[in-house]
Design goal:
It contains 14 helices and two strands, in the order H-H-H-H-E-E-H-H-H-H-H-H-H-H-H-H. With about 375 residues, it is an all-alpha fold. It has one domain. The protein is about 70% helix and about 0% strand. Strands 1-2 form a two-stranded antiparallel sheet. It is globular.
């Protein structure tokens, strides 16, 4: 693709204002994800009685529209991103409510809706859209002191967290809390409230441990692996990483995918380490770090508060989700079923992350020209 600098068409202006390095990093992650899905999923498909390329085909089917969504959304102005976020957040909340009444219970949780034969996890879509709406409310509160933006943002956070905990999904609640807390802090949260909310977060963590048996079980097993037999997947994943060494055992030579039920999703990093070595794992880590740091650099001198807050929220979601997945695999934190962005198998996660990164690309474009594009 090539456009002259004098090209004033929508695509021409997009090409010279969008962060092409971030796009390249995200496409590289998606390519690595396809490679690892091809390595990990045939064994999983065989265990459930599906044909060998079942997950590979579905991953590709979701990846194409996901990348299309990402690039299409990146064409938007900040104002259009804000409108999309409001509409998407409203739809996500409706689906979160529907989940409580219509979704089947799986492993003690109700998180998935079946719409027209497609399984959708609404909590994946609520994260990026919440980041946009919350950023808008905090920004309006600063720009218009009489507008109750902070109160609205706090109310929307409480509603979202309540709906997520009713499923229950403590992990997604943690991510939404991190998004909201980061934006509140950047919007000028007084230091007294910073301390108060920090203490409240600690109380909430203790409450989750007491209220939710699965949270208690995971933390107990993390602190004392001998407390139960639920450490099998983590122990197996660590052994796979050790056996892979620096350069791996070679494509197709891994064994962890033959025994781990979640080798293509939560523990796909173990497959990467065993077959392609620590080198690939470090490359993946570097790509995630690059996207986050590059995004923060792009908004460092931004004057539009909404753009700063929304970008920060989207980057926190992206980076935290990657950290949780990798840290769980390496037993640096209690296990939490959270996908590795653009790499793990999963349609809802892929589409929601593509939406989030499309919004980020749109918000971090160099803005000049018309008022609509500026704002």
């Amino acid at each position: 693709m090539s456009f002259g600098r004098t090209d004033t068409s929508i695509l021409g202006r997009w090409w010279w204002t969008v962060d092409r390095w971030t796009i390249a990093a995200l496409l590289t992650l998606a390519g690595i994800g396809l490679l690892l899905t091809m390595a990990a999923s045939p064994a999983v498909a065989d265990r459930i009685g599906a044909e060998p390329f079942h997950f590979i085909r579905r991953q590709f089917i979701f990846l194409v529209p996901a990348l299309t969504v990402m690039l299409a959304v990146s064409l938007m102005s900040p104002r259009q991103v804000r409108r999309l976020g409001v509409i998407g957040f409203g739809a996500a909340l409706v689906l979160l409510v529907a989940v409580l009444f219509l979704a089947p219970e799986v492993k003690g949780s109700t998180r998935w809706l079946n719409l027209a034969g497609i399984s959708i996890q609404p909590s994946e879509f609520v994260k990026p859209t919440f980041a946009i709406v919350s950023a808008w409310m905090f920004a309006e509160s600063r720009l218009n002191p009489g507008f109750p933006g902070r109160a609205v943002a706090c109310g929307l956070f409480a509603l979202t967290a309540l709906l997520l905990l009713k499923q229950p999904d403590v992990g997604q609640t943690l991510v939404v809390t991190a998004i909201w807390g980061t934006q509140f802090f950047l919007a000028g949260l007084p230091i007294v409230l910073v301390v108060a909310l920090g203490a409240l977060a600690a109380v909430g963590a203790v409450g989750a441990y007491i209220i939710f048996p699965h949270v208690q079980s995971r933390i107990d097993r993390f602190v004392d692996p001998s407390a139960g037999d639920g450490t099998y997947q983590v122990t197996t994943a660590l052994n796979a990483l050790k056996s892979g060494g620096l350069f791996g055992r070679g494509p197709g030579e891994g064994r962890v995918k033959l025994v781990l039920p979640d080798a293509h999703t939560d523990f796909i990093l173990a497959v990467a380490g065993e077959e392609f070595g620590i080198i690939l794992c470090l490359a993946v880590l570097a790509l995630f770090a690059f996207v986050v740091l590059r995004g923060l650099t792009r908004v460092m001198h931004e004057e539009n508060l909404f753009v700063v807050l929304a970008s920060a929220g989207l980057l926190v979601q992206f980076g935290l989700q990657a950290i949780v997945n990798m840290a769980s695999t390496l037993r640096l934190m209690p296990t939490k079923g959270m996908t590795l962005p653009f790499i793990s198998y999963g349609g809802s996660s892929m589409l929601a992350l593509a939406l989030a990164m499309g919004m980020l690309l749109a918000l971090t474009r160099k803005r000049y020209g018309s008022e609509e594009f500026e704002r």
